[in-house]
Amino acid sequence: MVLVLMSVVLVSSLAPSAHGMREGSPIVIAGALLQWGDVLPSEVVAFAYRDDWHQIPVQVDERDIREFAQIYGSLSDDAIGRGGFGSHVFEEVYCDPDTFTGLDSNPTLDANDEIVFMAHDAGTRAETIEGPVGTQAGSGVEIALVDPLSDEATFVYLFLQDGTLDPSAGVSYVDYDFHLLSGEYRSTYNTAGNDESTGARNEDHGEQLNPEDSIIRTTVYERHWSYRWTCDRLSLFGGSSLVEREDYWISPGACSRNMGTFNAQEGAFIANISGPVRAIRSFLGANSGPLVQVDRIYYEAREDVAIYVRVHPRSAVGMFYVDHTVAAIGMTYFNDLNPTGVMIDGKPDRLEVGPICWELVAGDQGSMIRLHEMLTDIDFERDDLTLFYVDDVNTAINLCQACLEGCREPETLGDDHLIGASGVWNTAPLPNTDPSLLATQFLTTLTTLYYGEAGWTPADAMMRQAWADIPMGVQWTPWPRPADPAR
Ligand SMILES: [Ca+2]
Ligand SMILES: [Ca+2]
Ligand SMILES: [Ca+2]
Ligand SMILES: [Ca+2]
């Protein structure tokens, strides 16, 4: 693939020896922490001190409260214009001027906006009281990152700039090209999920709506999206795609609901944001759960996926699972119940099943870790959660099909195999979690993915599990400190 036409220069910041600095992990700070008064997000710049000041990339993502109906594109006086999904239901979301979500109603850096930089870009404590060139005197804030796992502290300094600096520091860790085949999002996206020939609501097993050719690219991994829910390519270091599908089943082989049916009906994008520190792909709509929300946040070597399950009662929660391509044959699959691993070779394996915390897929092609977490007030039992794992090129499990353009015949997307396919399977019934149906309970599943070089072992997964369990301490103080002696 020729990369010379890329609009930004992707830069790698990763150093193999930087494990103690939580390599690949972001630090996200709420605007509420900073007390600069009315400043614009573009005024914020970040520096690390390593014998001298070095500018590091920083990003501000604005958030605001929105009515879901607005995100679907319904006018306030015409709530049924695009289906009226989520009228009178509000949530704080990422802002995007190119979707119906629109800009933050407060253009300054306000309390719910997020400032993000990478933990491993931090440096030492500044040995000077002179701020960096291009910054406003008296605006400095020292952020101390204290890692309880190592008792080490590293430092990042935020400043307001004078207009001469670029907050990206001239680099980009991730580039997201959201490309809708129909054209501009607001004028062409079929948020109502209507059949384009009849104008009626599309069949749930009907044609896939709103095709895309969207790419997320870093120096470590690349993802390609063909529909709102469908990532049909995930490659590491420019290699072949290793993931054939990331799909949903209510139980293995049950195709009444899957990403094909999600794509066929109503949905909307909340926000598409590209770099320099992270990209955000945030969207809504899973059949009769129009307020089901997915936030996928992409860093250079990590991806955070939050699925806000907002839906009427269902017979089971089900599972999101990952299925690999034949290019993954030869890799090894591990999880915390099966740390010795099994070979991904299309031949069945014997695994301990039960609730799992982490998964690792590693081989010459590179390594992928998935950490699993759940935020909920539903009383799930430990036995409700189990492992789904199938490695079988001749699987007897029914694989779902979807209607592509024109819907002549439903087709199996990708291949006919389950290759090292796995996921966290929640077999418990799901109570009402849809706020538009006056739900009183909630469920959010969180998955943190790390991508890296060949040869990661369970120790690499356990270290990242520890990072998730014991967050980095973040302390801040004005800089230079008033008590600092003049030197
Ligand atoms: Ca805001
Ligand atoms: Ca704002
Ligand atoms: Ca096997
Ligand atoms: Ca497959």
Task: Produce a short descriptive summary.
The chain is mainly beta and 487 residues long.
Overview of this structure, please?
The protein is mainly beta and 487 residues long. It has two domains: 23-61 and 106-171, no CATH class; 174-467, Beta-galactosidase, Chain A, domain 5 (Distorted Sandwich), CATH 2.70.98. Helix content is 5%, strand content 36%. It is built from four helices and 29 strands. The protein has helices at residues 68-71, 185-188, 259-264, 458-469; strands at residues 26-30, 44-49, 53-56, 59-61, 63-67, 90-94, 114-118, 141-147, 152-160, 175-177, 214-217, 221-225, 231-236, 243-249, 268-273, 279-286, 289-298, 302-308, 319-324, 332-335, 338-343, 358-363, 366-376, 385-392, 401-402, 411-412, 418-426, 443-452, 473-478. The strands form seven sheets. A nine-stranded antiparallel beta sheet has the order 15-16-17-18-28-23-22-20-21. Strands 3-2-9-8-29 form a five-stranded antiparallel beta sheet, with no helix packed on it. It has a four-stranded antiparallel beta sheet with strand order 10-11-12-13, with no helix packed on it. It is globular. Bound molecules: calcium ion (4 copies). One calcium ion binds at residues 342-345, 347, 349, 391.
